[in-house]
From TrEMBL:
<feature type="region of interest" description="Disordered">
    <location>
        <begin position="246"/>
        <end position="269"/>
    </location>
</feature>
<dbReference type="GO" id="GO:0009401">
    <property type="term" value="P:phosphoenolpyruvate-dependent sugar phosphotransferase system"/>
</dbReference>
<keyword id="KW-0813">Transport</keyword>
<dbReference type="Pfam" id="PF03609">
    <property type="entry name" value="EII-Sor"/>
</dbReference>
<feature type="transmembrane region" description="Helical">
    <location>
        <begin position="205"/>
        <end position="238"/>
    </location>
</feature>
<feature type="transmembrane region" description="Helical">
    <location>
        <begin position="41"/>
        <end position="63"/>
    </location>
</feature>
<dbReference type="GO" id="GO:0005886">
    <property type="term" value="C:plasma membrane"/>
</dbReference>
<keyword id="KW-0472">Membrane</keyword>
<protein>
    <submittedName>
        <fullName>Phosphotransferase system PTS sorbose-specific IIC subunit</fullName>
    </submittedName>
</protein>
<keyword id="KW-0598">Phosphotransferase system</keyword>
<feature type="transmembrane region" description="Helical">
    <location>
        <begin position="6"/>
        <end position="29"/>
    </location>
</feature>
<dbReference type="InterPro" id="IPR004700">
    <property type="entry name" value="PTS_IIC_man"/>
</dbReference>
<keyword id="KW-0762">Sugar transport</keyword>
<feature type="transmembrane region" description="Helical">
    <location>
        <begin position="180"/>
        <end position="199"/>
    </location>
</feature>
<keyword id="KW-0812">Transmembrane</keyword>
<keyword id="KW-1003">Cell membrane</keyword>
<feature type="transmembrane region" description="Helical">
    <location>
        <begin position="69"/>
        <end position="87"/>
    </location>
</feature>
Length: 269
């Protein structure tokens, strides 16, 4: 089977749009399962697309880009794997074998897209100082380009140059470039988590932070289990706050307080 020009165009547009969906409204286009299904629909083989997408979805269950972390992009891997599985007719194993290195390669491009966006961020800051609303809007929209192109260009190159493109890039890419991007990718999660801990009411809920860390780091509790602990803590906190409010006069305000360290001490804000 050969791929038509209109299929290349539609798939590239989908690759561009799905990452924007992930970082904005998140209706589900960025899930490997949905990406495989949509790509299979475009290629005329929904069954293969669902099988590839579902297999890769299992590899990212409970994994999230918390704090700016970059993870293997198995969504784009599902797109590429489905395409070449349908074209070659080699089956699901071939698709998964191709999708995994694609996902690993796109970790680096995800980091690169994040850093390229700092250019538009600085322009937005300067526009805010000038109160230039038009410039702010233009640069916010332009910030979507690094994200979308970081997914669309690899898909386009794979479709144009074949399945060996990923192996060639990994083989010939300079070591300093890949090493630098890996270092940056390791720093980003730490910076992101540090920002979250600064602005979230960490001191107020410090015991729950310790419980979550102990469960994840020592007991190897899956992310779903940590989420259940978080829900339990939220329920306990809600009940405590509700019982306290019932004992207080109804006209007594409870203003949110922003400490000098920047931490919000009341979640009502």
């Amino acid at each position: 089977m050969t791929i038509e020009g209109w299929q290349i165009l539609v798939i590239c547009l989908f690759a561009f749009i799905q990452i924007l969906d992930v970082i904005t409204v998140n209706v589900g286009l960025g899930y490997p399962l949905n990406a495989g299904m949509i790509t299979g629909l475009i290629m005329g083989d929904v069954t293969t697309g669902l099988a590839v997408g579902a297999t890769l979805q299992l590899m990212v269950l409970g994994v999230g880009t918390y704090g700016g972390a970059s993870i293997p992009d198995f969504t784009t891997g599902a797109i590429i794997g489905t395409i070449f599985a349908v074209i070659s007719g080699k089956g699901i194993e071939f698709a998964i074998g191709l999708a995994v290195p694609v996902g690993l390669l796109l970790i680096q491009l995800d980091i690169l897209a994040r850093f390229l966006n700092t250019f538009f961020l600085h322009r937005i800051i300067k526009a805010i100082d000038r109160l230039d609303i038009g410039a702010i809007e233009r640069n916010v929209l332009a910030g979507a380009l690094p994200w979308g192109l970081s997914r669309m260009l690899p898909v386009l190159l794979m479709l144009l140059f074949g399945e060996h493109f990923v192996q060639l890039v990994l083989y010939y890419a300079p070591g300093w470039l890949m090493g630098g991007l890996k270092v940056a990718g390791g720093v980003l999660p730490v910076v992101g988590i540090g920002i979250l801990l600064r602005y979230l009411p960490t001191r107020q809920f410090f015991p729950w932070l310790l419980i979550g860390f102990f469960a994840a780091a020592w007991l190897k509790t899956p992310m779903l289990g940590v989420a259940v602990l978080g829900i339990a803590g939220a329920i306990i906190h809600y009940r405590n706050v509700s019982s306290t409010e019932k004992r207080q006069p109804q006209d007594t305000p409870r203003p949110a307080v922003l400490t000098t360290s920047g931490e919000i001490t009341d979640d009502e804000i």
